């Protein structure tokens, strides 16, 4: 592709987890990791915690099998250019983009992701709800991994929401330190592909708050899959198990960039509701973007 050709982009966020959105319906754009990192760089690029490429499922080899169920595939990349299976805030912003672009109507729609098809309910000017599927976590009530940051260590729970998370409950979110580097998670074999790490505190009855260090992006102001992982870890810690009790359980999860409401249903399905907005659009010439300069935090 001609690197001087203007590429259309939009910018959006969900609870301030922000994304560069690149419409590429026919999947013709060449977006190698270095180009994604340049676009997501906050100093020399557009800036974002990640990138959402909007591709027709039928036009993407990883999504073709989902095309009958979901017309659009969210090709999600982290700010450093790495690929991730799933992004909960990203799906909401992706759906908002589809509606705004006239590619989907407000109401119910399906989005293909690397973690499978996700069902979304989109209110025209309101919140967006996404059915995130079931959490996968090791059996038993006890945390199974350890997280270390800023000279402290906490037991943590391994929760998979399509992508990997380690959830540690702490006394004070400030104890996680500046999170300029990734917290250490042990045993490292528990996360062969790396982990997103959440630090969570209680704020009240079924109300928690978190900070997150995202794999491939650094500390962000929100993480939808992370908030779901925290909700499920908190519910298990609190002895609430919707599958066993036959009733849904809802938690409010505060993130630095806003609030998410998350429900786990008796069938194991986790549903997340929160805002999603598009804030800007324009064109960019990929050839004019330079490599992010030196610091090891792509999100900084
Ligand atoms: N911010 C996202 C998660 C994005 C992917 C994550 N960094 C990973 O590598 O798994 C969310 O809202 O879920």
UniProtKB/TrEMBL annotation:
The record marks 165, 214 as: Could be important to modulate the pK values of the two catalytic cysteine residues. The gene is dapF. Coiled coil: none annotated. GO terms for molecular function: diaminopimelate epimerase activity. It holds the Pfam family DAP_epimerase. Pathway: Amino-acid biosynthesis; L-lysine biosynthesis via DAP pathway; DL-2,6-diaminopimelate from LL-2,6-diaminopimelate: step 1/1. Belongs to the diaminopimelate epimerase family. Homodimer. Its EC number is 5.1.1.7. The active site is at 87 (proton donor), 87, 223 (proton acceptor). This is Diaminopimelate epimerase. It catalyses: (2S,6S)-2,6-diaminopimelate = meso-2,6-diaminopimelate. InterPro entries: DAP_epimerase_AS, DAP_epimerase_DapF. Its main location: cytoplasm. HAMAP family: DAP_epimerase. It is an enzyme of class 5 (isomerase). It comes from the Bacteria. Substrate binds at residues 17, 78, 88-89, 163, 196, 214-215, 224-225. It is found in: Cytoplasm. Catalyzes the stereoinversion of LL-2,6-diaminopimelate (L,L-DAP) to meso-diaminopimelate (meso-DAP), a precursor of L-lysine and an essential component of the bacterial peptidoglycan. Keywords: Amino-acid biosynthesis, Cytoplasm, Isomerase, Lysine biosynthesis.
């Amino acid at each position: 592709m001609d690197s001087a050709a203007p590429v259309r982009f939009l910018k959006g966020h969900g609870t301030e987890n922000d994304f560069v959105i690149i419409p590429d319906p026919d999947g013709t754009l060449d977006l190698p990791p270095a180009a994604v990192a340049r676009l997501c760089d906050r100093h020399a690029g557009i800036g974002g915690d990640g990138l959402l490429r909007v591709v027709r499922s039928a036009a993407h080899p990883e999504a073709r099998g989902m095309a009958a169920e979901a017309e659009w595939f969210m090709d999600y990349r982290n700010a450093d250019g790495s690929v991730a299976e799933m992004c909960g805030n990203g799906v909401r912003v992706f759906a908002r983009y589809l509606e705004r672009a006239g590619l989907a109507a407000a109401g119910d729609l399906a989005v293909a992701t690397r973690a499978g098809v996700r069902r979304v309910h989109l209110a025209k000017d309101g919140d967006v709800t996404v059915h995130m599927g079931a959490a996968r976590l090791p059996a038993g009530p006890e945390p199974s991994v350890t997280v270390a940051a800023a000279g402290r260590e906490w037991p943590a729970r391994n929760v998979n929401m399509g992508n990997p998370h380690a959830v540690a409950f702490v006394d004070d979110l400030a104890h996680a330190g500046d999170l300029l580097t990734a917290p250490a998670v042990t045993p490292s074999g528990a996360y062969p592909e790396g982990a997103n790490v959440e630090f969570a505190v209680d704020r009240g009855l079924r109300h928690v708050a978190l900070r997150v260090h995202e794999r491939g992006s650094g500390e962000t102001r929100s993480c939808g899959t992370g908030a779901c992982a925290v909700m499920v870890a908190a519910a298990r810690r609190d002895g609430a198990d919707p599958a066993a009790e036959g009733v849904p359980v809802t938690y409010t999860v505060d993130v630095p960039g806003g609030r998410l409401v998350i429900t786990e249903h008796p069938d194991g399905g986790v549903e997340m509701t929160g805002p999603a907005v598009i804030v800007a659009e324009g064109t960019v010439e990929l050839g004019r973007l330079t490599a992010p300069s030196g610091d090891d935090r792509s999100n900084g």
